[in-house]
Design a protein that fits this description.
Elements: E1 14-17, E2 22-24, E3 33-37, H1 44-62, E4 66-71, H2 75-85, E5 91-93, H3 98-102, E6 105-110, E7 113-118, E8 121-125, E9 131-135, H4 143-154
Parallel strand pairs: 3-4, 4-5
Antiparallel strand pairs: 1-2, 1-5, 3-8, 6-7, 8-9
Helix pairs in contact: 1-4
């Protein structure tokens, strides 16, 4: 599978914030970054994941880390999703193929139909911008706690 491997540096990639502003991932160098890719706003698993990251956001900030959720949904859809569930975790739209560059745009099968979709995955970069840990095919229950523990281990 193409994409980033542990030890690779955070790419100089651009995303669009829910307010339409540009987010350059390299701007996060200097503190740990939790970057999580999820399939779709306002679906059961994605909602739970965003709520869990929102609930733990103060703990991530206390540990010095930033958290950013990314999907291919539009900024307007992210705003609606954020408002509906009072989410505090920032969400960004991938309009430039960042998800594919990470290797998180993968073949999937649903009801026998093959299609391309987002691998629910989380990428932890240390303060220098080096990829420290990757979780692939994430199961939502308990995941945020695992990620927070890994952030704390970065010291």
């Amino acid at each position: 599978m193409a994409g980033l491997e542990v030890g690779d540096m955070l790419p100089d990639a651009v995303l669009t914030a829910s307010d339409g502003a540009t987010i350059n991932l390299r701007d996060y160098v200097g503190k740990p970054l939790v970057l999580y890719f999820y399939p779709k706003d306002d679906t059961a698993g994605c909602t739970r994941e965003a709520q869990d990251f929102t609930a733990a956001l103060p703990d991530f900030h206390k540990a010095g880390a930033a958290v950013l959720g990314v999907s291919k949904d539009t900024p307007a859809k992210h705003r609606k999703f954020t408002d509906k569930y009072s989410l505090a975790v920032p969400l960004a739209s991938d309009e430039t193929g960042v998800i594919d560059a990470f290797g998180a745009w993968v073949p999937k099968v649903l009801y026998g139909r093959e299609y391309m979709g987002i691998d629910r995955s989380t990428w932890l970069f240390d303060a220098t911008g080096k990829l420290a840990r990757v979780w692939r095919k994430v199961k939502v229950p308990g995941h945020v706690e695992q990620v927070l523990s890994a952030v704390r281990e970065l010291g």
